[in-house]
Design a protein that fits this description.
Elements lengths: L14 E6 L5 E2 L2 E2 L14 E5 L5 H6 L6 E6 H6 L9 E4 L10 E5 L8 H14 L1 E2 L2
Antiparallel strand pairs: 1-4, 1-5, 2-3, 4-7, 5-8, 6-7
Length: about 130
């Protein structure tokens, strides 16, 4: 087994970028908590990109329907489920059709189909933590 390289470890002080692709999730500079709810096609992973590998402009430009990009602090993301005993994590990975380098997935988010209240609680925490980019 190979040793991880620095780029494989997402440190707590890293900034993540989350592309908001649906207009109903982003209006007037405010992000809706539903932008952080897992969808069936997410397969339990919420997509983000690491700012150390990609710019906000590249993130916006990678999607035809990008309505905005928000930043998240990795350490705070990992704490989003602490009150409810969840161990939310951020891991470096890649997607087969990744449009950008530096993909990272937010893991261990609640499934909205099995626990919609917990899913909305954590999504609201992430919404409150995020910062819109200009």
């Amino acid at each position: 087994m190979s040793e991880p390289v620095d780029s494989d470890i997402v440190l707590c002080d890293e900034i993540l970028l989350r592309a908001i692709l649906k207009k109903r999730h982003f209006s007037g500079g405010q992000v809706d908590a539903y932008a952080f709810i897992l969808r069936p096609q997410d397969e339990g992973k919420l997509s983000t990109w690491r700012r150390r590998f990609v710019t906000v402009a590249a993130c916006k430009g990678a999607y035809k329907t990008c309505c905005g990009v928000v930043t998240l602090h990795t350490g705070r993301v990992r704490c989003a489920g602490d009150e409810k005993g969840l161990r939310v994590d951020v891991v470096a990975d890649s997607l087969p059709s990744d449009p950008l380098p530096g993909h990272a997935s937010v893991l261990n988010l609640p499934d909205p189909n099995t626990d919609p209240f917990l899913a909305e609680f954590v999504a609201t925490k992430l919404r409150d933590q995020c910062r819109p980019t200009s």
